[in-house]
Amino acid sequence: MERKDAEQLQQKLIQGELTETEQQDFFNWLKQLDEPELSAFLKEYSASFEQKPDSLTGEQHEDLTNKIEMRLDALGVPKTQYRRHMPFKIMAAAAVLVLVCSTIFWYYANLNANKQATISKNTTIPRATPIYGGNDKVLLILSSGKRVEVNNFTKGQLAVENGYSIEKESNGLLKYRKINTATAPASGNTNTIVTPRGGQYCVNLSDGSKVWLNAESKITYPVVFSGNTRKIALKGEAYFEVTHNPDKPFIVDFEGSNVKVLGTHFNICAYGDGETPKTTLLQGSVQVSTGDSKKIILPGQQAISSKKICIVNVDTNHVLGWKNGNFSFEHERIGTVMGKISRWYDVDIKYQGEVTQEEFVGSIPKSKNLEEVLHRLELTGLLHFKIKGRSVTIMP
C-alpha cells in the first residue's frame, strides 16, 4: 500500500466510513512500518488536528461529529456528559487514537530480536544502568515469627512445623510435605509468604493447592487446614489452583470481601491502593461476598467488589498476563498501568501536570527493562517520562 492510500484510509477511519477490509489493510500497513516511519506518521497525524475544520458547513460538521460519536461508541469509549461537547479535533483524534494505540502496542510487543536492537540504537533512551524487574527474593514468616529468606536456599528443607517439612524444590516451588502423622495439628499456627516489589513466587500449600503471588503481595495461611474450612488471607494479587474438597471449602479473605470455592482456578487482585478488588474465574465456580452482597461467577467472568458486586465478562488471558510474563493492559487508565510498572521495577511514580486519561490496550513483555517499557508507552504520543534513580515522573 502506498502512503497516499494509507492517508486516505486514515481520513475514512476518522469519518467512520472505513469498511472492515479497509480497516484491516490500514492496520497491516501500520504494522509493517519501522520505528522512525511509525513515529513520523503519528506526528503528522497529531498535527492534522491542530487546524479547526472551518471549511465544513454546519450541516457537514454535525454529520461528521455524529459519525465520530458512532465510532467512539463502537470502540467502547464511555459516553460521558462532556464527550459530546469535546472540541472536534480532540473527539476525532480519540476515535482514531484508541485503534492506533492498540496497533502500536501490538507492533512493539511482537518485534523480533533484530528490530529490538534497532530501537536501542536509534532512540534517545537514557544510558543509565538499566532497571529490570523480576527477582527471586521471597520472605517466609513462620508461626514462631522467624523470618526465612527463601532465596538463600537453592533447594531442600527450610523448616519443620506441625509434622510438615517446608521444602524448596529444584524448580523454586515452596512445598509443604507431611512427614509425621503422629503430630497433632495446631490450628492456630500460620505461615506468611511475602513477595517484594519485582518478585513473584509459587507455593504449594499443605492441602495440595497452588498459589502464585504477584509482586508486592502476601498470603497468610494455616500450616495445617483443620476444621471445616480452608481459610487464608490475601493482600495484593494471586492466582489460585485449589485442590477439590467438597467437605472443606477454600476461602480467601481480601479487602473486606471473600471468595468461597470447593476446588477451582481463579485470580484475585486486591492491592488496596485505590483500585477496586477484582476476582476473575478461569475454571469451576466461586462465590464472592462483600458485606451483604453475594454473587456466583462463572468461567470468563470477573467480580468487581465495591459496595456492591458487579459482574463483567473479561479476557482471562489479559488478567493472567502477569503470571505469563507480560504487562497486559485492557482498557486501563495510566494510574493502573503505572501501578503495575512500579511494583515490577520497584520504582516510585510522580505526576507532573495533567496527564492523559485515555485508556491503554496492549501487551509488553516484563522481561524488558524499565526504559524500554516506558519508551513504548511514549510512542503513543500521549505522555512522556523522566527517570531519576528509582523515581519516574510522568508528564503530558
Features:
globular; 18-stranded mixed beta sheet; 3 domains; alpha+beta; 9 helices; Phage tail protein beta-alpha-beta fold; 28% helix; Jelly Rolls; 396 residues
Overall description:
Keywords: Membrane, Transmembrane, Transmembrane helix. This is FecR family protein. It holds the Pfam family FecR. One of its GO terms (molecular function) is sigma factor antagonist activity. By secondary structure, the protein is an alpha+beta fold. It folds into three domains: 120 residues; 180 residues, Jelly Rolls (Sandwich); 70 residues, 3-Layer(bab) Sandwich (Phage tail protein beta-alpha-beta fold). It has nine helices and 23 strands. Helix 1 packs across helix 2 and helix 4 runs parallel beside helix 5. It is globular. About 17% of the residues have low confidence.
What structural class is derived from the secondary structure elements? alpha+beta
Tell me the major beta sheet.
18 strands, mixed
CATH topology of the largest domain: Jelly Rolls
Distance between the termini: 33 Å
Mean pLDDT: 78
Question: How many strand units?
Answer: 23
Organism: Pedobacter suwonensis
Pfam families: FecR (PF04773), FecR_C (PF16344)
Protein name: FecR family protein
Domain FecR protein: 192-287
